[in-house]
Recover the amino acids of this structure.
């Protein structure tokens, strides 16, 4: 019998989602890279949360304030007791990113739909263009943002590197080696230098995903992260990519599927590190 | 400000006066129509340029038929993973450049794109909205270079890597 994920409750199947479409205790959230994709058709009753327009501060490179998060949750009919179920395109990159952002504000009732949008569609399940709207709630302003717990900044990552503690680079091998400064199939996002944070190990996010966008089994994930690179459940781990979306996928895998307790996502990632004057870089 | 071919100018003018929400709705409507601009089965074209570039998430094909007066019948094929904004831009360009000449198309600059897409949707990862125009202009340039070479009686030998195939 296969082993079970550390937090199996955090991952639901497309069938589970289909069975809960009318469940008032959940709010289904679609988050995509393709900005207009939700509007071309989405899971019935799902709302749309955009990784940039909704979750990021429009001026600073930072996330929204607790006040704005409370407003975002309220206008989507979410209360602190609501279970927020995320799904999206690109193997759930942005779904896990949005989930991580919700965790930043202390919302812990969260789940991801295994396989995301692609799996839902491939199974011939229904889509609608009807925009879902819910009565406004009064989500209380979170008392803090959990940056210290699940988010790493440049200084944290530099300290991690100098101390030789685990750093996981989830970008493509070409980006890690410094051969390219953008991920394959994407435009350049303004990075001046290529390479990786000294001491980081390359474990591309894709190694944790199957071709149908579902997550690999716990046994497979254990082989990759625990046996493969020697990560231990109590290790202090930082994951990074270019802007924090692919590393959110890995953060979800390590935190919820393997149960590692101290995983932080460095959302500044390579677009900060590779542009920072005198930031140390390894190549190859 | 650039002078756009008349049909493209009409579309730009329409979008410019729309609020963001209606811009979005119109972009979706154009994206829905992208498939209607695919090459017609069984048709042959004067120039076919089908390739998968680093800048785009899937294969894009540009097909040109050029009449004696150098007006262009433009067709574009899109892979399944091409993003919605890129689909919309394909549809807008195929509609807006209908009946335009090679020279008119080469003169179209990308400064109309922000007027269509709107501030909320412009971000680094949506830069492929410019990609389709670049591909169309590139195909027109290859066609024109090829024609000039033929007019001079010399063999055409492209220096770039457009991947264009003569039909």
């Amino acid at each position: 019998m296969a082993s079970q994920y550390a937090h199996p409750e955090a991952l639901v199947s497309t069938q589970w989602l289909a069975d809960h479409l009318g469940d008032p205790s959940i709010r289904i959230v679609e988050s995509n890279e393709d900005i207009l994709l939700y509007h071309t058709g989405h899971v019935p009753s799902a709302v749309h949360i955009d990784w940039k327009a909704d979750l990021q501060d429009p001026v600073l490179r930072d996330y929204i304030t607790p006040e704005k998060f409370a407003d975002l949750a309220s206008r989507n009919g979410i209360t602190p007791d609501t279970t927020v179920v995320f799904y999206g395109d690109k193997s759930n990159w942005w779904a896990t990113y949005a989930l991580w952002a919700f965790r930043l504000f202390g919302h812990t009732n969260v789940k991801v739909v295994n396989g995301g949008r692609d799996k839902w569609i491939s199974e011939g399940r229904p889509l609608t263009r009807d925009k879902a709207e819910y009565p406004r709630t009064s989500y209380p302003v979170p008392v803090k943002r959990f940056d210290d717990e699940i988010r790493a900044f440049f200084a944290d990552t530099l300290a991690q590197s100098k101390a030789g503690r685990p750093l996981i680079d989830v970008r493509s091998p070409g980006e890690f080696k410094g051969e390219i400064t953008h991920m394959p199939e994407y435009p350049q996002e303004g990075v001046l230098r290529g390479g990786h944070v000294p001491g980081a190990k390359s474990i591309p996010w894709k190694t944790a995903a199957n071709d149908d966008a579902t997550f690999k089994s716990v046994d497979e994930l254990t082989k990759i992260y625990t046996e493969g690179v020697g990560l231990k459940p109590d290790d202090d781990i930082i994951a990074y990519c270019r802007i924090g979306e692919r590393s959110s996928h890995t953060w979800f895998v390590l935190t919820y599927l393997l149960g590692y307790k101290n995983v932080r996502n460095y959302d500044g990632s390579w677009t900060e590190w590779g542009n920072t004057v005198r930031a140390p870089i390894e190549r190859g | 400000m650039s002078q756009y071919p008349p049909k493209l100018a009409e579309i730009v003018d329409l979008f410019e006066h729309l609020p963001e929400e209606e811009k979005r709705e119109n972009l979706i409507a154009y994206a829905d129509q992208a498939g209607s601009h695919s090459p017609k089965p069984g048709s042959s074209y004067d120039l076919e340029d089908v390739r998968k570039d680093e800048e785009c998430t899937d294969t894009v094909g540009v097909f040109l038929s050029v009449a004696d007066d150098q007006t262009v019948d433009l067709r574009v094929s899109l892979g399944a993973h091409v993003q919605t904004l890129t689909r919309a831009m394909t549809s807008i360009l195929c509609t807006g450049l209908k009946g335009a000449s090679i020279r008119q198309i080469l003169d179209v600059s990308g400064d109309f794109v922000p007027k269509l897409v709107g501030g909320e949707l412009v971000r680094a990862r949506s830069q492929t909205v410019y990609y389709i125009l670049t591909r169309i202009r590139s195909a027109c340039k290859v066609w024109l270079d090829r024609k000039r070479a033929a007019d001079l009686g010399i063999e055409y030998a492209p220096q770039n890597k457009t991947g264009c195939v003569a039909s």
